[in-house]
Amino acid sequence: MRAAGILMPIFSLPSEYGIGSLGKEAIRFIDFLKSAGQSYWQILPLSPTSFGDSPYQSFSAYAGKPYFIDLDLLCEDGYLCKEEYSGIEWGDGKKIDYAALYCKRYAVLKRAYLRFIKNPPKDYSLFVKENNAWLDDYALFMAIKNANDGKSWDNWPDALKLRKTDALTEAKKIYAEDYEFFKVLQYLFNKQWNFVKTYANENGIKIIGDIPIYVAYDSADVWCEPQQFMVDKNLRPVEVAGCPPDIFCEKGQLWGNPIYDWEYMKNDTIPYLWWCRRIEYTLKLYDVIRIDHFRGFESFYAIPFGDKDATGGRWKKGPGIEFFNYLKQKFGEMPIIAEDLGFLTDDVRDMLLQSGYPGMKVLEFAFDCSSDSEHLPHNCYKNSVVYTGTHDNDTVVGWQETLTAEELRFVKKYLRAENENKLNWPMIHAAFATASDTVIIPMQDYLGLGSEGRINTPSTLGENWGWRIDGGCINDWLAQIIKDVTEVYRRLPNLKKSSS
What we know:
The chain has helices at residues 24-35, 71-76, 98-116, 123-130, 132-147, 158-161, 165-174, 176-202, 220-224, 262-266, 273-285, 321-331, 346-355, 396-400, 405-415, 424-433, 443-447, 476-488, and strands spanning 3-7, 40-42, 206-211, 239-243, 253-258, 288-291, 299-304, 314-317, 336-338, 359-362, 384-387, 438-442. It is built from 18 helices and twelve strands. Strands 9-6-3-2-1-12-11-10 form an eight-stranded parallel sheet. It has a four-stranded antiparallel sheet with strand order 5-4-7-8, with no helix packed on it. By secondary structure, it is α/β, with parallel strands linked by helices. Among the domains are: 225-340, no CATH class; 358-467, no CATH class.
């Protein structure tokens, strides 16, 4: 069935406290989506971020981002007093100031924790028990990291780095307060997230969430199970992940994530046990999973550890369709979107076709004057999800500023938009008109923002993941405009098909 949704990160929601959160503004945005006739809210990973602030480089594949815990809700629950957080300078309000959050947010959350732990709700112990498979290790990881001035786990004392039983037992005693603090934060996050997701589902909105293909080296995941990754005897990565050089980046992309030991994973006590646990948890977190860097399961680009860029990397075979067939045996048909962008081969296309998952079409990739791109609207097929751009692209208005005169003429002619100064709405109409089952539009494109609305520029640090929306932009007027477009292209939910 034809449907539509909006890409809008949690962190970009309006807030008085420096970053979007899981409070009233999340609920208001769901109301906006419903009024706009949308079926999906696509978000980015909910995980806690490390250096660089990227949600694709996290301390845990399971944990939720503590910054997303809504302070006003904590106040309503009696864990905070308004004056303890309302007078704090959280930044200029235009972009997220992660340095301010890092220095100030945890102190506020610690106040909430101290009140919480005096009389924990009855379901807290149940939450800890049900999530113990990852929560205990994550909380200890964060407690030890704090005690070691934030250093990566491979720079901890050997006994802790190597997870010696006596050392871990002692660490839980020494760092008992922080150890419990990070568990409580996950309970609070989980409680607020479950309310948001339930409210969305009750109002006909499904959540599309990301599962990054890789995890960060400095994470509880690698610290706890280094055998799942290609590391040497000193637990340092042998090779790391990235992308080869292309027309967008002449030295490629050096992500730095450790590479999986796929042979070990396949022959684990249960095949792909590590991934099965991760998928099972993520299926509870979201309604639809967008698998980031899907092509990496067919072949992945491996770069020698220590290289300064990605030019020295090479392609290696991944687990292929066998991996996804095994997951289907375990979980049945799963609601998955395959992020099949980047350098694609026939083998990758075959894997996507055999999986049955919808791939992605991105209109900003379509308008190469010399080719009949598979991303052009007339080539978008039914079992796909079409975007104007993703979180890694510029906004449409920013993108059009980068086009050559020849490219701009072609885009305008194709879109029949010769007299338009901004191409965001012609591109939106083109996306909606495709045969693709689903269309997802970044919120910035509905607003007609330029490059100031860009979320991420790959292979750069310092200016990413900071865009914030003005709360006044989420309004009934815009919702009605979006709903009108959604209705015209027959993407409203529960729209009956005519037999004529």
